[in-house]
Design brief:
794 residues; alpha/beta; binds beta-D-glucopyranose; 26 helices; six-stranded mixed beta sheet
Amino acid sequence: MQSAFAPKASSLSLLLLFVALVPPSSPAQARPVPNPQLASKEVNARTESLLKKMTLEEKIGQLVQYSAGFATGPAASNLTYDDLVAKGQVGSMLNVVGAEKTNHYQHIAMEKSRLHIPILFGLDVIHGDHTTFPIPLAVAASWDPQAAETVARSGAVEARADGIDWVFSPMVDIARDPRWGRIVESNGEDPYLSSVMARAWVKGYQQGDLSKLDSVAACVKHFAAYGAAIAGRDYNATDMSEQTLRQVYLPPYHAAVEAGVATVMSSFNSINGIPATANPLILTQILRREWGFDGLVVSDWGAVGELKNHSIGDGPTVARKSLEAGVDMDMEGNLFGTTISSQVRSGKIPESVVDEAARRILRVKFALGLFDHPYTDSSPVYEATPERRAVARKVADETIVLLKNDPVEGVGALLPLTAKAKKIALIGPLADDARDLLGAWSAGDPKNVITLKQELTDRLGDRLTYAVGCGALAGEDEKILERVTFGGSVAGSSPQAAADDEKSIAEAVEIARQSDVAILALGEPANWMEGEASSRVHLGFTGNQEKLLEAVVATGKPVILVVLAGRPLELKWAAEHVSAILEAWSPGIEAGPSVADVLFGDVNPSGKLPSSFPRAVGQEPLYYAQLPTGRPAHVDLTHMPTNSEEKFVSRYVDEQNSALFPFGWGLSYTRFSYAKPTLSRTEIPLQEVLADRGAVTTVSIDVTNTGRVAGTEVVQLYIRNTEASVEQPVRELKGFARVELAPGETKHLTFPLGFDELSFYNVDVKRTVEPTTYDVWVGGSSLADQKTDLKIVE
Ligand code: BGC
């Protein structure tokens, strides 16, 4: 069989012909799990009965979405929405927030439009709403699906109170290149981890029941492979084999669909030459036919209109291509509403295509119970209550990663801080910057943030001195302030541009000299440098922060570095000169308390990296699950050619290949030891695996806390398929578990292995297992070295 990418399926008829030719797929490919509510008899009956009453214009009206509030993309429409809603020409609105505003439009829709169809209100609720939790990348660093579910639940409850019934989350694009600013919204580089998290986010938003009054419809985005934008430049094209697409990039979206996600957002990028927003293979063949998705697909902001820039036709043509490919709703593109009707009347687009899109949208509205409960009771005034704060802090505590904690001569390990450190200096532009501690894409109010400076002042009183040290931006960087007014933030409102960095650095050096230890809170300003349209080619600290760090380190005082950023930064100099480093990401409203919890040992850090941290930006895209090379043989993560004497090997001549801090990495204040893993069965007949009835063997491992304090370890299982007919990565994560261990305690863990974990896509793009040997490792990071073997035999 040919690769499914081979035919250029650019129209629905071609696609359908192609679909009919595709032989039945493997069992694992054919498991459509539609959302039972969207497929329910009642929802379908009500939808069909309503559809029958609708005119063509009314049906097209459902396919139209406008931003009637703030803009989260270029060129927002500026129309008279009241009138359009009354005429039934708007199906959904985004960025309209608060009961008063949403009820305003809802009353018009319910009372003035002919068929009284409610509006669906959408918003980017990305890491909690008013109660802002750590950024999604940080939540992934907890390796705790329960944490993701908690964040989603909190966001759903608060959004619903604001009249929002649809959130544009989770974003599950695999992100292997931190130059791409949107890595902040992702679960990082790994398909398995991201899939586990995707399910948890969806569960938290939808609770398995869209009709609950505090559930919201989730929207998995951006479909598909947006994270693979070439060179990490936002909106750029992606280009990859279909095997890689299916094995690496698609699994998290599929996991969200299996978890019942009600909606999907198509992405801006093209995939192998076909824009995702007009891509029938992605939106119809894979999403609907193979995965059984029953919900609605919305385009990304303006993406239907931007198809013109992809040179695939004029306005009417791209609208038709997008609709026929499987986009149901046009977000701010203003093309479905203006160009579809005449094309249906002229016979160019079958009316059944419009019916189908309207049907999918109406089903979501019925499943959400919007026809029965269209309005929101007046929004309660949000308060950052102690209960809400406690939940946010617990999640944030789990997301912090201890990257390094080497003993300092005469002092021992710097962390956790003890009373021996009498005078502590807190230095850095992010130590007291409430807005940036919230992170990119946040709806929270900076006033609710407890900064590091506030929390440490509370805890330490006179023992603490503070200096800003420098601005987080300097020189050229400051121009970004003029450009970026994204997400409702006001350009120039940040305190980050320091007037006189030289003087500030001198002040910081002075307070460090007078202290026993200096804590440096450095990173990149979330508001300007992270998220959408914030790709970077430099991955260092912004502004003069590196100079500040060097100057403080030069005092000879012990330094603890707290990194606050939404992407892996280049920490090479810091890792060579600083003994203790905490990655705290953008922690949200409980930033200060959660970082302090870890600094003082109230919480033993348990986070693990969801992304590899590079030594130099030139290594990007850098990820652990690389394919092998011919030179040298047996490349493994632990045995990368580094500064090898050998010339003709796959390496850089000026830097090591390996990550500075690898995927899965994270230390603790205790130590864990791993016994050798064992398998319940070491040889399995191939047919048994192919029958795909779940686990065929289990991996068992004993993990012991060999230190003196209790701790939580994320135990990770990796495999390598050593003899596949298509090259497989040198390691792939296939299981993990968070386990709490008292000092001296041993726990026995088991992980299942079956078709799901062992399969890969062969040359025919068919998911399969072949006779082979798998290396199986278990450990505390992607460098896990306790190993066993599993054989699959004919
Ligand atoms: C982003 C989406 C977001 C949408 C609506 C776009 O610019 O790419 O992630 O959901 O705007 O705000």
